[in-house]
Design goal:
The protein has 378 residues and is of the alpha/beta class. The chain folds into three domains: 189 residues, Ribonuclease H-like superfamily/Ribonuclease H (Nucleotidyltransferase, domain 5, 2-Layer Sandwich), CATH 3.30.420.10; 85 residues, DNA polymerase, domain 1, CATH 1.10.150; 69 residues, DNA polymerase, domain 1. It is 52% helix and 8% strand. Strands 1-4-3-2-5-6 form a six-stranded mixed β-sheet, sandwiched between helices. A hairpin with a 4-residue loop joins strand 3 and strand 4. Helix 10 packs across helix 13. It is flat and about 70 Å long. The relative contact order is 0.09.
Amino acid sequence: MSETLPPPVWVNTKEILQQMLEDLVTQSRLAVDTESNSLHAFREQVCLVQISSATTDYLIDPLALKNLSVLAPIFSDPKIEKIFHAAEYDLICLRRDFGFSFANLFDTMHAARVLGYPAVGLEKLLNDKFKIQTDKRHQKANWAKRPLTSEQIHYARLDTHYLFDLRDVLEKELREKKRIEIAQEDFARACLFDDHKQKNNGQTWERFANRKDLSHRELTVMVSLCKWRDGEAEKLNRPVYKVIMDDTLVSMSKNPPQHKVDLSALGMSERQIQLWGDAVLAAVQHGMSAPLVERKYVESPSDAYLRRIEKLKVWRKKIGAEMGVESDVILPKSYVAAIAEKPPKSLDDLACLMKESPSRLEKYGLQILKVIGVKNAN
């Protein structure tokens, strides 16, 4: 498949946005992708939204437009299919930044996983199916920087331009292998809002709260260091790891430095010491004398729960190997946890837990009940 592509439409004014919208509302399906700046900013944001219709590739600049609420009805319209590749992260970002909700989705990466493809990256699939090569060097680019280079623009439009063809090929294979129902159920489940999967902006000390290698005092020092680092990262608008790495903060919490000369041995560069040495020492001293923080304890799961988890994992791994797919395609992690936490006593109980995946229930329901020890599961 080789073709000379017309330039994409750069959407950075309300007038062009409206023109694009007039095209999108007439479509039965659209291809969608996003680019964010998580590697380059303290608070990640969507910096580009790519949408392809049957005839046109659009690159939408949310940094110029600010308000993309006119797109909300498109994403929530069940009559318009939205095709993504690796949808989960894009959905999290679009929900977070614009409050969008979703209906009628097709995820080409997940479709490939359900089919048992060993490699499911877009670059690999496009090359294998259509001999199209894409350059992933721009994946980690700073998408908030303007103007975008011509290479970035070309890369961004390719992420959606060929999704229609890829989707059709994969759907055909799903139907041939009789796996279309499972894939469609997973697409529908992806549209459901799950606040546990929402990506937080900015890092917090709570990520370290349950580390058993940190004493209560060391954790208190860590809290002080993290709060200082968060403030500095926000002021500079860069990811926290580009101020000081986590491992360095952990080292300083365990071996509190008293003088600048100590900071080098704990992992800080000369440049970092020059910029922030005094502030780091002050944060450490504050943590050494501050009231101990309350550690956030997570209740340990019961032995019975852990045994059920292990049995389900062993079972789904065996079935996955037989089908040539990853084990979570057989039974997603959320179902494993729900079944282990509240073990069903009958097929009706299991049906309540797995109501969004009736095809899995029909295919594996009795096996699941037997795995967790339900007697007379038939």
